[in-house]
Design a protein that fits this description.
The protein has about 100 residues and is of the alpha+beta class. About 25% of the residues lie in helices and about 30% in strands. The protein has 2 helices and 4 strands, in the order βαββαβ.
Length: about 100
């Protein structure tokens, strides 16, 4: 069994940003994603209201180039203005051709 080295981009964001983020990530080259509702606490504290929905965690397996473009995009448009967390991990993926 062989694996392909790729990147796992994880984004945690306010639910209200989900559709916009997914549209932009696809335009940057993402082929798919997994979404989970999450809760947590960070530098901005715990959200007191869920009227806009819980935070979401978006996970994407990407080529290193697309992961870099996505991080640059998030850094420029979202990190200064929204409660968004983003990080990249190295992963070994089966059927790697599905993600690039």
């Amino acid at each position: 069994m062989s694996t392909v080295p790729l990147k796992l981009l994880t984004i945690i964001a306010e639910r209200v940003l989900l559709d916009r983020l997914l549209r932009e990530l696809r335009a940057l080259g993402a082929k798919g994603y997994t979404i989970s509702e999450v809760v947590g606490e960070g530098s901005r504290g715990v959200r007191a209201s869920e009227w806009e929905g819980r935070n979401v965690k978006i996970e994407l397996i990407l080529s290193p180039e697309v992961a870099e473009r996505a991080l640059a995009h998030l850094s420029e448009l979202y990190l200064p203005h929204f409660a968004v967390v983003a990080y990249v991990s190295s992963v070994e993926v089966m059927r790697g051709e599905k993600y690039v």
